[in-house]
Amino acid sequence: MAVDNAWPCPPAFEKDENALQFVEQMTTNADMVQERILAEILSRNKEVEYLKRFKLDGATDRETFKSKIPVITYDDLQPEIQRIANGDRSAILSAHPISEFLTSSGTSAGERKLMPTIKEELDRRRLLYNLLMPVMNLYVPGLDKGKVLNFLFIKSETRTPGGLLARPVLTSYYKSDHFKTRPYDPYNVHTSPNEAILCADSFQSMYTQMLCGLLEREQVLRVGAVFASGLLRAIRFLQLNWRELALDIESGTLNKRITDPCIKDCMGKILKPNPELAEFIRLQCSKENWEGIITRIWPNTKYLDVIVTGAMSQYIPTLDYYSGGLPLACTMYASSECYFGLNLNPMCKPSEVSYTIMPNMAYFEFLPHEPHSDGLTRDSPPKLVDLADVEVGKEYELVITTYAGLYRYRVGDILRVTGFHNSAPQFHFVRRKNVLLSIDSDKTDEAELQKAVEKASQLLREFNTSVVEYTSYADTKTIPGHYVIYWELMIKDSANSPTQKILNECCLAMEESMNSVYRQGRVADNSIGPLEIRVVKNGTFEELMDYAISRGASINQYKVPRCVNFTPIMELLDSRVVSRHFSPGLPQWSSERRRM
């Protein structure tokens, strides 16, 4: 067993020491903590309808729990979730009232998944947040001497037919008193005022947060966003709006496009004329070369605080370019379903990031992951492994049981065990299961992509044209990134081939078929750019197969990959492109959920 239990240096403050002692206590007795957590969850929820259905009969031990409660996915639980959403307030999943739904970035039938939560989960999330800086302070001293420029945003929320709020987990947290009335913490002083973070208009929010970050450029010690893609959008925003921002700083007046009364009142107290700073911004931003722009504008930045694991790793080269190679810190691992753990070595290389699961957050099980298998068979029950019994080097799918009423729920994250901190395992996030394409929080799987291609190809029928083959990739060189779909077409009548206009409309038709998370990213969040179709020469996909076979693939088992990211393959595809087409408009999207 690879064990890591040494901190790099002693904590400097008593508060930090207490936090680190808590981490040691939880991870030293991981299996005992897990046994207690499961017993607590089952004891408090023993009368709920779901557990009674499987005749648990009040048992709280692991053996009985595993023998009677099935491993499930969201689709298995959807009838119960829909009843709660429609207003049923009986104890279906949890003895505690469901306070709201947290909308997952994963989707079911094209809509965000609804994850039930209870009020006390906010306390549990805050507990994990409160561990992050005591760990970081061991690696980066002096973070209490300045501020953090963290681009934080709320997203749209709606209500279910039964009146419960449904919104993303971070929107729930930012709108809670835990965040809005948080006590002063010298290690977490934001340049962005709450009024800007809580503004629902993404332009006004970003503009104000960027303006405040520029005003306090010398106080900023770390720059970040939740995801790497979000920080790159902020840089792109600065590229597009630096002239207006500099004018506001020079004149001490706020851009007329900022109409939110709370922001206007707040900025009226902050914004004062500063011609010298305005000239500096103009000098830096007018240069053609933006390499190192982050450290040029915020010279005291020690690291970037962003998630760059999983699909976000594709943004690392661009972040390195804009930051001059600043360290990238991935501090915690969390989802809408549950907050899981933290990175105890936050200044490690992105490829070495491992998260230590905190055993007090939920009850965790692990389904051994075999490629090309769903992990379960009809002939035998799943053999799940407990938290303390996972093996280094092996991959698992995460399965959770939570206080809020998820029991043996498959999260869909594939994790690889890299070691242990005391008796708690550390995991490298490998990927989301079944996800082909992702730019931001969107997750598009193969079935969704196939459906979108089929929908768009209907527009080609009047031209007696069909899609012979296709593949895709997530292009993150543009900001925001966008989906690229390679099409090989069979045109049966060259005199009646599809027009540029029709192929552009095919792009939009594909976008209309995407799930609601993708469409929200396109319409409301501006986090995804217009979808692009690149038409390639006839025979291109045969060349692709020949290339794969030349590298050892079996001709009998070869299948066209529906997503590519291997440079030689992408170079081959791009060398065969005959035309490029982009979505001419925005797909339809509404914050209201479809009725089920």
From TrEMBL:
GO MF, one annotated term: acid-amino acid ligase activity
Domain GH3 middle: 355-432
UniProt keyword list: Ligase
Ligase listed as a keyword: yes
Span of domain GH3 C-terminal: 448-566
Gene Ontology CC entries for this record: cytoplasm
InterPro entries from the UniProt entry: GH3 (IPR004993), GH3_C (IPR055378), GH3_M (IPR055377)
Family: Belongs to the IAA-amido conjugating enzyme family.
Protein name (Swiss-Prot/TrEMBL): Indole-3-acetic acid-amido synthetase GH3.1
Species the sequence originates in: Manihot esculenta (Cassava)
